[in-house]
Structure formats: C-alpha cells, structure tokens
Write a structure and sequence with these properties.
alpha+beta, Glutaredoxin, Glutathione S-transferase Yfyf (Class Pi), Chain A, domain 2, 5-stranded mixed sheet, binds glutathione
C-alpha cells in the first residue's frame, strides 16, 4: 500500500446563513477521507474541492504510480478514480463520494442545489463533455492515430454542443448557474482546466464560460487543486 499523502485543509468558510438542516451529524464530522486518485483527474479534483470547502481532511493515495494502481485495484473492480474510503465505507464515483460528503458533513460554504434535477442535468452534460475529451486523450496517449477520424470529430462536436448549451444556462452575471459555488460550477471549472492542461480541447471555443472560471479562480479550494 503506497503512503497516503495528507492534503492541507483550508479553513472552511463559515456562513451564518448555513441552514440547520445542512449542519453535519456530529458522529461523522471529524473523520478523514482516504482518497484514491491523481492530482490531474477532473473527477478527483471536484471531490478535493468539495472536501476542502467543507473542511474534510483528505489522505490521498496517489494512483499515478504502479503501486498506487495496485492499491486502487484492490479496492475497486472499476479501476477508475476517485475511490474514497470514509466512515467505514468504500465509495466508487466522484458524485457518490460528494453526495456522501455533503449528506454527512453539510455543504459548508458551498451552495446546495435549489433544483436537484436541473443540477443533475448540468452535471451530466459536463461529465459527458469531459468523457468525450478523455476518450480522445486516452487513445492519443496510447499511440492510436485518432486525430482527424470521424470518432474524434464526433467527440469534439459533442463537447462544442455541450459547452454552448452550458453557456446559455448561466445566470445573468455569468459567474454561476444560478447560485454561488456548487457542484455544477466546480465540475465545469474542473473540466475546462483539465482540457487546457491536457490540451485536448481549445476552451477558447466556449468564450461564454470564461467568466464563471474567472469568478472562482482565486478561491483557495479551486486555486490549490488546479492541475499543473
Ligand atoms: N463517473 C466516474 C468517472 C471516473 C473516471 O473516468 N476517472 C478516470 C480518470 S479522470 C479514470 O480513472 N480512468 C481510468 C480508465 O479509464 O482506465 C466518476 O465521476 O468518478
């Protein structure tokens, strides 16, 4: 088992308006989360951002190494990151992990969804965009000459369509989809930063989304987890 790397936990932002129902049940509040993942994955990053926002300590198992991959395979047959071990459970999938965190520890200074079903549509669209970009990235990384193929074109066009749609879903100030910083905003920032980092999609093709990215760029949880 590779050594777990503890991450710095930024002080959670206290929000006086936090509703009583969002407060964490005391029995879960203190436990740290063991998180299997890399520092480049956008799915791992959104979990790290949420953990930082709600003040949940993270011990990350780096899955970028062979040892880390072996450790990952020992906890999940899916072989994808993130996986969390928390409160005596092993949880696969970033959205499930985030759901567990916000359910057991509250939303901290994050904005809870006003409309869960709308948020689910936004996040599904964001995930579909990054899934398409990731498929092309993996093929290129494995030396498959995917550039210029109909497959790659279809993935690119899907990303174009999704980002254009997301631009139309923004609130008037362009900084969010209608609240403050929530799962949809964090997910969008994570995929745009990842696309730039991996140079798999020119994010300038979606100028409408630049304002949202800029609005949260200096937030400690966002700035400290940006891939580089
Ligand atoms: N729906 C999953 C997606 C996870 C995912 O695709 N992770 C990628 C890293 S960004 C992965 O582990 N891929 C490994 C592979 O496809 O072999 C989640 O939200 O956690």
């Amino acid at each position: 088992m590779p050594e777990a790397v503890p991450e710095a936990v930024p002080e959670p932002v206290t929000d006086r308006r936090q509703r009583r129902s969002q407060r964490p049940p005391a029995r879960y509040a203190a436990a740290a989360m063991k998180l299997y993942g890399t520092v480049t994955s956008p799915f791992v990053r959104r979990v790290r951002v949420v953990a930082a926002e709600i003040g949940c300590a993270v011990e990350r198992i780096d899955t970028a190494t062979e040892e880390g991959q072996a450790a990952l395979r020992a906890v999940t047959p899916i072989r994808k990151v993130p996986v969390a071990v928390i409160d005596g459970r092993t949880l696969f999938d970033s959205r499930v992990i985030i759901d567990w965190l916000t359910t057991t520890r509250g939303f901290g200074a994050l904005t809870p969804p006003k409309d869960r079903w709308r948020e689910a549509n936004l996040v599904n669209a964001i995930d579909a965009a990054v899934d398409s970009a990731i498929q092309v990235f993996y093929l290129k990384r494995d030396g498959v000459p995917v550039e210029g193929t109909a497959f790659a074109q279809r993935q690119l066009e899907r990303v174009d369509a999704i980002l254009e749609w997301l631009g139309k879903e923004l609130a008037a100030d362009g900084a969010s989809f209608g609240g403050g910083l929530g799962l949809a905003e964090i997910s969008l920032i994570a995929i745009l930063d990842w696309m730039d980092f991996r140079k798999v999609y020119a994010t300038e093709r979606a100028p409408a989304l630049a304002g949202l990215r800029a609005a949260w760029a200096e937030r400690p949880s966002v700035a400290q987890t940006r891939p580089q």
